[in-house]
Amino acid sequence: MADYYTLVVALPWLHEQMEKCTQLPLSRIALEKRLSLLSDADWQLLRLAEQLYHPVAKGDTSLPDRDRAMRWQQQLDSFPSEALRACLGLRLEMQTLLAALRYRRRPETSAEHFQGFGRWTPWIRRHWQEPFFGLETQVDYLEELGLLFEQGRTGDLQNRMDQYLWQNLLATERSHHFTLETVICFVLRWGLAERRLSGDADTALTAFEGLSGELMQSSGIQQQLEQMFEEFNT
Q: Smaller CB count within 10 Å for the chain: N or C?
């Protein structure tokens, strides 16, 4: 659709600060009714954005990490908006960095076995032994999240990461008025709020495990052993 004004006006207000969003302003059903104003093409992009930003574990670990990252890049390239590609790419790169921190803890792993998404993967391999892969000055959130990870504070880690993503989405909303970017970023923020408000310490831990572990389901040594013994999960 060429004019998103009616849809954007129909969307309720979400607080600028995630921690002050104490309840959802509308249900998913009510949100879906408003989103029905989208064209089929826009709807497909929205669904793909949600799939990339809020992945649901499906238990299929047979896809090699390199292929998984390539598929993410192909999906990202299908978005005509540079702003949306940047938002979604940030989320996937953040997942890669957390996956690298977690993967490095495993015994008998090395840099060449790690596969990830985005611009930092080659750098991570070259700086594998450095505390934060030497990226502290280039990735402003990495040291803070990395310290929370090392301390095992998974709930705080999930919360801080969501706050960072929330502000990134909000900045994009504010810089695009009455556009598809406005709509998709709002829906992605709504998803962050929904998960936060419906969660507790256990679900936060589960979410983190899924987030940082998805890239490593078939990585490196584990993948080689699974291939050797033909024990791929189905």
A: C
State the alpha helices, DSSP H only, in the chain.
Answer: 5-10, 28-35, 40-53, 65-77, 82-104, 121-126, 142-150, 154-175, 180-198, 201-213, 220-229
Length reported for the chain: 234
Can you tell me the distance from the alpha carbon of 189 to that of 169, in angstroms, rounded to the nearest whole number?
7
Burial classification of residue 103, based on how many CB atoms lie within 10 Å of its CB (0-12 exposed, 13-18 middle, 19 or more buried): buried
Query: How far is Cα 116 from Cα 100, in angstroms, rounded to an integer?
Result: 8
User: Is pLDDT above 80 for 226?
Assistant: no
Interhelix angle 180-198/28-35, rounded to 10 degrees, is 170
- How does pLDDT run across 170-197, given as a tens digit for each residue? 999 999 999 999 999 999 999 999 999 9
d(C-alpha 132, C-alpha 143), whole Å: 7
Segment 150-158 shows an average pLDDT of 92
Question: In this structure, are residues 172 and 87 in contact, taking their beta carbons and an 8 Å threshold?
Answer: yes
